[in-house]
Design brief:
39% helix, 4 helices, five-stranded mixed sheet
Length: 130
């Protein structure tokens, strides 16, 4: 099983944004930063999950994925497969599309204090926009 911690951050809301992805796989740790351009904080959180799924598709195809996020909005949308926010709907659809390529993909909400490494990476990724 691959453990994936994701976080999105924005400097302003909306503002320059970044995704941080921290992966524990096969006894190794991998860190990824992805600048996202101008987004809201919630959009950055969704994009962090999308970026992480894309990384997992190329690096860990066929693996079981256990995602963790401190974004209640994202976790609830994925768990319920529903969002009332029309801006989030295409992002949720993309997550469902990517997630369906794995035998098992689930996401769990965690408190921010348990997601510090992904948070650091997301904040660093903001600076890669500039």
């Amino acid at each position: 099983m691959i453990e994936v911690y994701t976080d999105g951050a924005s400097k302003g809301n909306p503002g320059l944004s970044g995704a941080g992805i921290y992966i524990k796989a096969h006894g190794q740790v991998y860190e990824h930063q992805s600048p996202l351009g101008i987004l809201s904080n919630h959009e950055a959180e969704f994009y962090a999950v999308i970026k992480a799924l894309e990384i997992c598709q190329s690096s860990y195809p066929g693996e079981i994925l256990s995602f963790r996020s401190d974004s209640q909005v994202v976790v609830d949308a994925i768990d319920k497969n529903h969002t009332k926010n029309h801006n989030f709907l295409p992002l949720l659809n993309k997550i469902n599309e990517l997630g369906s390529t794995f035998p098992y993909f689930f996401i769990k909400w965690i408190p921010s204090k348990e997601n510090k490494q992904a948070d650091i990476l997301a904040k660093q990724a903001i600076n890669l926009n500039e």
